[in-house]
């Protein structure tokens, strides 16, 4: 795993995220509310929506300094490093979600050391399988793609994208997961209430 101490703040403007309670007052279409505000397992929802044709593609995984807003949300000192994992979640061979996970190195200790070597396993499946996992508040964004480090394999994306992020805690150790819904995903592919609540 490579180490890069530069957070590349001068390359990409960070997305503007809103607290869930502020976001619910915005004009968010109903079909998107079901996906953005749900606190259950996104991975499990995508598996149901794709009838099981789901896979994870790792774009990159490296150790570096997170973006400033990520540091603040995680309450990380400025120079501290995190493992940053960026993946695409595919449904029916289409890229549906770009996910960025920020795992402070201080959180990858003890029983959480195994998170350093996820390979192509979805992080969420491990989080939601842990009975001690706690999820923090959800933040919502309607994001200009120029403010995201989307993989080149997606080609040009010229429309704003809905996304969300939230903190997860395991044994009081925080990590941050951001999930951006890509143009190939339609929120009405599968009714949200048709899948179970707890697995991811």
Structural notes for this entry:
By secondary structure, this protein is an alpha+beta fold. It has one domain (2-194): Chorismate lyase-like (Chorismate lyase, 3-Layer(aba) Sandwich). The protein is 16% helix and 33% strand. The chain has five helices and eight strands. It has helices spanning 20-23, 30-36, 42-49, 68-74, 123-129, and strands at 2-4, 18-19, 54-64, 82-91, 94-104, 134-143, 161-170, 173-181. It has an eight-stranded mixed sheet. β7 and β8 form a beta hairpin. The longest helix has 8 residues, at 42-49. The two termini are 25 Å apart. Residues 3-11 and 191-200 have low confidence and may be disordered.
H-E string: EEHHHEHEEHEEE
Q: What is the structural class? A: alpha+beta
Q: What is the 3D shape? A: globular
Please give the domain count: 1
Q: Which oligomeric form is depicted?
A: single chain
Q: What would you report as the Rg, rounded to the nearest angstrom?
A: 16 Å
Q: What does the average pLDDT come to?
A: 85
Strand order of the largest sheet: 1-3-4-5-8-7-6-2
């Amino acid at each position: 795993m490579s180490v890069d101490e530069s957070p590349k703040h001068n390359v990409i403007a960070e997305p503007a995220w809103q607290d869930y309670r502020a976001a619910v007052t915005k004009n968010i279409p109903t079909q998107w509310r079901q996906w953005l505000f749900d606190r259950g397992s996104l991975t499990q929802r995508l598996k149901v929506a794709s009838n099981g044709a789901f896979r994870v593609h790792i774009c990159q995984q490296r150790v570096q300094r997170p973006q400033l807003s990520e540091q603040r949300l995680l309450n990380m000192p400025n120079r501290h490093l995190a493992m940053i994992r960026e993946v695409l979640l595919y449904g029916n061979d289409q890229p549906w979600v770009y996910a960025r996970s920020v795992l402070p190195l201080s959180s990858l200790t003890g029983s959480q050391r195994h998170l350093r070597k996820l390979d192509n396993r979805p992080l969420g499946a491990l989080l939601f399988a842990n009975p001690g996992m706690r999820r923090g508040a959800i933040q919502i964004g309607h994001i200009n793609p120029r403010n995201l480090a989307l993989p080149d394999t997606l080609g040009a994306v010229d429309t704003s994208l809905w996304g969300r992020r939230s903190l997860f805690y395991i044994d009081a150790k925080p990590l941050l997961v951001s999930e951006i819904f890509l143009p190939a995903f339609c929120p009405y592919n599968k009714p949200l209430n048709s899948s179970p609540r707890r697995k991811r």
